[in-house]
Amino acid sequence: MSVNDKQLGMALIVSGPSGAGKTSICQKVRHEMGDVAFSVSCTTRPPRSGEIDGKDYFFLSREQFEKKISQNQFIEFAEVFGNYYGTLKSEVLDRTRCGRDVFLDIDIQGAMQIREASVNDPELAKCTEFVFIVPPSRQELERRLRGRQSDSEEQICKRLEKSSYEIKFWKKYDYILINNELEDSVCRLCNLIQSLRSASKRMPEDLFK
Ligand code: 5GP
Fold first, then answer.
1. Which terminal CB of the chain, N or C, has fewer other CB atoms within 10 Å?
2. Domain assignment present for 90
3. What are the tens digits of pLDDT across the range 175-186?
4. Is residue 81 part of a domain?
């Protein structure tokens, strides 16, 4: 008897209210683990200073984005703050099919679309894991949003209002990470990923040959 170790990779869908710290946590986890890929999303919003096409996002016109929708190239897409954002199937499935793990930093609407699609799609059901990152309290979220010093008072109020709505989705996720302290959260997410690599659902059918 021998063991076939060619398992399916996992798609780690990470979302949470803005200001919860998901981007910093995912970047640090990727740096520490070294072998988790990142799904580069498509967007129609213009690049911010320092953002690189193909690294931070694939920056597309509305026409280009809508063409990809009609070609069924997205696992999910959503309109966020007036712009399209979407995850390409190729960014995720090309990796998971080769046994690689990949992060998806997407909003809650997108995560819920993938959750629904996975009900009728056994491949998606096998490879996806849903992680919700939350701040320890509303007061702390407000403190963090103000600390960024990049948003106006109006934007901060909008984000706080949106986060009160978003936080209600926590039960739809498989894992909840309360981000009290960055280094500790990074460590807990690395440990979670290591444990999930042993999930039987991603093992090959012919595990024992
Ligand atoms: P930003 O414009 O600040 O980079 O992102 C705005 C929001 O869009 C964030 O909440 C981010 O998680 C979300 N987002 C980024 N990429 C995608 C995607 O591919 N799909 C969806 N649904 N949301 C995304």
1. N
2. no
3. 999 999 999 999
4. no
**Is 73 domain-assigned?**
no
Instruction: Map tokens 């793990």 to a residue.
Output: 101
**Residue 26: which CATH number?**
3.40.50.300
pTM attached to this predicted model: 0.92
87 inside domain: no
What contacts 86, CB < 8 A, 6 or more positions away?
A: 41, 42, 43, 65, 68, 69, 74, 76, 77, 78, 110
pLDDT for 1 beyond 80:
no
Give distance in angstroms: CA of 152 to centre of ligand 1: 20
Ligand 1 centroid, distance to 190 Cα (angstroms): 22
Q: Residue 107's domain spans which residues?
A: 3-39+100-201
**Dihedral sign for Cα atoms in the order 65, 69, 71, 73:** positive
Range in 99-103, 115-119, 138-142 the model is least confident about: 138-142
Q: How many domains does the chain have?
A: 1
Q: Please give all residues whose beta carbon lies within 6 A of any atom in ligand 1, as ranges.
A: 18, 41, 45, 76, 78, 80, 85-87, 105-107, 109-110
